[in-house]
Amino acid sequence: MARPQRVYEAWKGNNKFLFGGRLIFGPDAKSLILSVSLIVVPVLVFCAFVARHLRHHFPAYNAGYAIPVVALIFMIYVLVLLLITSAQDPGIVPRAAHPPEEEFSYGNALSGGTPGRLQFPRVKEVMVNGMLVKVKYCDTCMIYRPPRCSHCSICNNCVERFDHHCPWVGQCIGQRNYRYFFMFVSSSTLLCIYVFAMSALYIKFLMDEGYPTVWKAFKHSPASLGLLIYCFIALWFVGGLTGFHLYLISTNQTTYENFRYRSDSRPNIYNQGCLNNFLEVFCSKTKPSKHKFRAYAQEEVRPPTVSFGREVEDEPVGGPRSKVEDDLEIGSDLLKISQRRNYEDVDVEMGGRRSNEMEGIASAKLVTGSESQIPAIGSDVRVRHSSWDRRSGNWDMSSNVLTRSASDVIERSVFATETAHPSQAETHQ
């Protein structure tokens, strides 16, 4: 007997799981190796080539030893925030097993839809803070996305309060990890400032001790020069990102909303004031995940199949009696049609136009026969123009043709009956 799958084993997104579903990462989780290297390597270089020389300049209470210790603690703090941001559920919305049945409607040919096909609106409106907001239907997750939710094409999930997908973190940034993402970015900025300031201070001490020019001080400590350049460049990225997200938090926006609706003049219905916006991000309780990745996956229950056509009773196929009954029914229908006036006269009486002249009238569909073309009568089928009576310019079937066809059908039906039941035919004779 096969072992039942857990939720993370049957996951339909592109996420990667570690430690039995306890940690969830994005599909580009390998980028974390680069991000960790960009944090750890500069700090280790700073401790090995700069901080250990600075400790002698603060002999009182051995305060100089605090410089490398602070750098290492700061580094560990940043790495923990990076792990929390990238290894937890960002707010993935559960998928549905089938489209929302309550929104179904049947297609109508008059409205341009396919008759009989189930349809539902792609967009609907919900009330948020007293204003109507449009939410879209997600074909992949088969749900109407909640407000401020978007589908990440990289992770292949719908994420609540979707901000963006960060390649450096290897995870979507959403409702449940945005706070830690901002703390990671801002802490990285402070770490860069700390290393930059300490490296510059060491160059200052070197210039006071016998290296009167900056160039000579840099030649004596090339590690300090490399750290100054690296931290200066990094500050443009992480520092600029910190400032940008401070603006987004103060106005209660997401990166996705800012880039998508920047040119629109629509009001921001989520803005509650600068103070309340910051309290919402940093002081609100993190919502629990809507997924239990280690739980056993439940089998999807398929909805019952909807029949769009009319029910037809099963009949034996190939028997002579069924063939006779079908031919007799067609023949009787043809006789009725032959007695009607042509369709142009009916159209004149009803006042209809040429475009809808066939509506409400039983139409004929040409069926290829062995000797002649026999029109089969059906419902809701438009007449296909035939070549009969083309010389006269009238594309309608004449009554003579229909009568002839009906009589041929009846004769063939009688012949089939005699062939199928020869004993009954001799008895009648």
TrEMBL record:
Location in or out of the cell: Endomembrane system
Family under the similarity heading: Belongs to the DHHC palmitoyltransferase family.
Entry domain remark: The DHHC domain is required for palmitoyltransferase activity.
Keyword annotations of the record: Acyltransferase, Lipoprotein, Membrane, Palmitate, Transferase, Transmembrane, Transmembrane helix
Signal peptide segment: none
Keyword Phosphoprotein: no
Class of the enzyme per the UniProt entry, highest EC level: transferase
Domain (Palmitoyltransferase DHHC): residue spans on this chain: 136-260
Record-annotated membrane-spanning stretches: 32-51, 63-85, 180-203, 223-249
A single cellular component GO annotation: endomembrane system
Its membrane topology: Multi-pass membrane protein
Substrates-to-products reaction catalysed: L-cysteinyl-[protein] + hexadecanoyl-CoA = S-hexadecanoyl-L-cysteinyl-[protein] + CoA
UniProt protein name: S-acyltransferase
GO molecular function: protein-cysteine S-palmitoyltransferase activity
PROSITE patterns: DHHC
The keyword Lipoprotein is annotated on this UniProt entry: yes
Pfam families: DHHC
